[in-house]
Design brief:
By secondary structure, the protein is α/β, with parallel strands linked by helices. The chain has two domains: 36-374 and 508-545, Alkaline Phosphatase, subunit A (3-Layer(aba) Sandwich), CATH 3.40.720; 389-451 and 453-491, Gyrase A, domain 2 (2-Layer Sandwich). It contains 21 helices and 27 strands. The strands form eight sheets. It has a ten-stranded mixed sheet with strand order 7-13-12-11-16-1-17-25-2-26, with helices on both faces. A four-stranded antiparallel sheet has the order 19-20-22-21. Strands 24-3-27 form a three-stranded mixed sheet. A hairpin with a 2-residue loop joins strand 19 (415-418) and strand 20. Helix 4 runs parallel beside helix 7, helix 11 (284-300) runs parallel beside helix 13 (330-353) and helix 15 packs across helix 17. The longest helix is centred in the middle third of the chain and has 24 residues, at 330-353. It is globular and about 70 Å long.
Length: 559
């Protein structure tokens, strides 16, 4: 028989085999007992390489060496903020769909600021007026928090719909928005910290479980009073990577100063409200958070009940430290090394409780951060970098409107500035019979006269989707028709909207490039260099869990 005849016969037989039903379908892959989704607030991808030589064996290094590492992972939206980033992780969609355009924003109808998770139909639980006799100012307990403003379902929501009440989905963070937006609408619980105390909302529980109350009463937070934040390594190791400890532009808030070591006492000899402010920016807050996460796994028996449970865990203190001191500071290096050690301890704990082979773990960040503009100027004074003055933004735009349409009466305003977007007071436009599109163009053109503005777009342009710009698609992904403002501008690189410290919220690499590490069941280990997005996490995790991806998720499964 000739080669060609043999080839045709083999092809025919192969086709017949494909057409016949399988004698025995392949068994589905076993589900993980526990899924842990970890986000580190304000953690740039380059931190893994920069600080990697100083990592221990069981944290980031374990995930890098034994798991899957995606070195080119980015957010694909333009406004890189905590809430908008956390909302992407498990919905797989961006602000144009999930609706969380920022941490808070000005409501177009009322012109009042709203928080992304505030909910006046529920109340905060677990928040006493005093702590050890000290009255601590906190948020209004009557104004609760929930995921009601999140307009897209999460993987956890899909899993609860698919598998019924058995699995538990729980969010934990220092920030309410981080815990809530990861956990989703159908979560069993969400816990966060308010001045060091673990709290929740009646959206999840009527009152704190006894074990949470006991955790709060243990005095873990108050035990941090008077502790000194010392470097983990010799000073020379920090100088070699980060430069001098005290750098122009750093913020020394809550009595913490601009250099290490820092004494966490709020500048007093006994506990006062200032101590809790200092605690917010110390690594000891992450210690309490990870201690609570361990306690939660034990008390809720996560991963040991015959169901797949999902724990969402977000480290927020890294963001506070990064804002105050910048990515090139001793403080950021030290809290990164501490996070590595804490991650190692937590993975070891999970291995003992559940077995890492029975877990699926994914780690990423919600955004990166810009360097301090003073550092950029020190390297090259001719480089465009600086601090944005919102008062000047408002005056420039309103002066242009005055010239075009006539000045307003004393006390009246044309606009409100909300970070990188501006909103018109619509009653003023109606009174003057001004078409919104015409007023938008005046403001857009005025913004473009400012030396720190790279591009500006009107609502009319964004609604039509007709902007021509290198960042057009990320910009449109951050625009929500009902919630976004009337004119949006993008600052040039290295310009930040803070008087001291630094910020994030742009489509530039330093804000959007984040780590993506996977470990455990359903993960194909290896180092992957192809471009991926944070919006790929949701469909990947849904596939591992054997459920449909969230209905609007546009990413792809990575394995």
């Amino acid at each position: 028989m000739s080669f060609m005849r043999r080839h045709r016969l083999f092809a025919a037989c192969a086709g017949l085999l494909v057409a016949l039903p399988s004698a025995r379908a392949a068994d589905p892959a076993p589900l993980p007992a526990l899924v842990v989704v970890i986000t580190i607030d304000q953690f740039r991808a380059d931190y893994l390489a920069r600080f990697g030589p100083h990592f221990g064996p069981g944290g980031f290094r374990l995930m890098l060496e034994q798991g899957a590492s995606f070195s080119d992972c980015h957010y694909r939206h333009a406004v890189a903020k905590t809430a908008s980033g956390h909302a992407v992780v498990l919905t797989g969609v961006h602000a144009d769909t999930h609706g969380i355009i920022a941490n808070d924003w000005i409501d177009r109808a009322t012109m009042l600021r709203v928080n992304c998770v505030d909910d006046d139909t529920v109340q905060i639980v677990g928040l006493p007026e005093t702590r050890g006799g000290v009255r601590v100012p906190t948020r209004n307990p009557a104004l609760g928090a929930s995921a009601r403003r999140l307009l897209a379902p999460t993987v956890g929501d899909e899993f609860k719909l698919s598998r019924g009440p058995g699995p538990k989905v729980i969010g934990v963070s220092s920030k309410d928005r981080s815990a809530i937006l990861l956990a989703g609408k159908f979560a069993d619980a969400a816990y966060w910290m308010d001045k060091g105390r673990i709290v929740s909302s009646t959206a999840y529980v009527k009152e704190l479980p006894a074990w949470v109350q006991a955790f709060n009463d243990s005095g873990r937070v108050e035990a941090a009073f008077g502790r000194s934040w010392e470097r983990l390594l010799p000073v020379a190791a920090y100088d070699a990577l980060q430069g001098p400890d005290d750098a122009p532009g750093e913020a020394g808030e809550a009595g913490m100063g601009r250099t290490l070591p820092k004494r966490v006492d709020g500048g007093a000899k006994q506990i006062t409200p200032a101590f809790y402010d200092a605690f917010e920016g110390s690594p000891f807050k992450n210690e309490v958070l990870i201690d609570f996460a361990r306690t939660l796994v034990e008390q809720e028996k996560l991963g040991r009940r015959g169901f797949t449970d999902i724990l969402c865990l977000s480290f927020s203190t890294n963001d506070t430290v990064g804002h105050n001191y910048g990515p090139d500071s001793h403080e950021v290096m030290d809290i990164t090394l501490r996070t590595d050690r804490q991650l190692a301890d937590f993975l070891k704990f999970l291995d003992a409780q559940v077995g890492l082979a029975n877990c699926t773990i994914v780690l990423t960040a919600d955004h990166g951060v810009a360097p301090l503009p003073e550092r950029i100027k020190a390297l090259n004074p001719a480089t465009s970098a600086g601090r944005i003055d919102n008062t000047r933004v408002l005056k420039t735009c309103e002066a242009a409107l005055d010239r075009a349409f006539g000045a307003l009466a004393a006390g009246r305003r044309w606009l409100a500035v909300d970070a990188s977007q501006l909103l018109f007071f619509q009653d003023v436009l109606r009174e003057k019979n001004i078409a919104p599109a015409a007023a938008e163009k005046i403001v857009r053109d005025a913004l473009l006269t400012l030396e720190f503005v790279d591009a500006a777009f009107t609502r009319s342009e964004l609604e039509a989707g007709v902007i021509a710009d290198a960042y057009a698609l990320p910009t449109l992904r951050s625009f929500h028709r009902e919630r976004s403002g009337d004119v949006f501008y993008r600052a040039k690189p290295f310009w930040v909207e803070r008087r001291t410290g630094t910020n994030h919220g742009t489509p530039y690499n330093y804000d959007t490039h984040v780590p993506l590490l996977w470990l455990g069941r359903g993960v194909k280990p290896g180092s992957y260099s192809q471009p991926v997005g944070v919006d790929d996490i949701a469909p990947t995790l849904a596939r591992i869990l054997g459920v449909l991806a969230p209905p609007q998720a546009g990413g792809r499964s990575l394995f």
